[in-house]
What does this fold into?
Amino acid sequence: MTNRYAALLRGINVGGRRQVPMAQLRALLAELGYGDARTYLQSGNAVFTAAAGTAPADEQALGAELEQAIEKHFGFRVDCLVRSGPYLSAVADACPFPAAELQGKQLHVTFFSGPVGPERYASLDREAFLPEEFSLGDRALYLYAPEGLGRSKLAEALARPALNKGVVGTTRNWNTVVKLVEMTRD
It folds into this structure.
């Protein structure tokens, strides 16, 4: 029996910097002993299987191992969050926004390396950003940005380093979240 995981690499293949070709990422996952390595898009999404003894609690260890392997192979450090298939399904199921009624570019999830609580964002005047909204989940932040992420003032405010101190975050649009849920189903 195996467990299926998604690896979310942060900040690669953007603007010609920190290039990680997906074929090489799949090969690297295979070298690490993971099975059925597949990638989605060029933005650092990979799905793989690990032996049944690898519990979802080991997501952090899996991410650290992949970070070290990427740094050794490509020569630069990349933050990597690994999440289990059941976790991704739970995140999708818990979405507080009407995902089925929205375009994928209007809804995003930022996955965090650890828990984030409402006190972290208490300094934000939520009313000032309407109709944009956000909601917190399990190591995740859901962002509704009707004009898309690139035009979102709320996304810009949420990305401030002071608000994210102590956690690593990487954002995926809703279409990608749904695809990763599909790819990690057993």
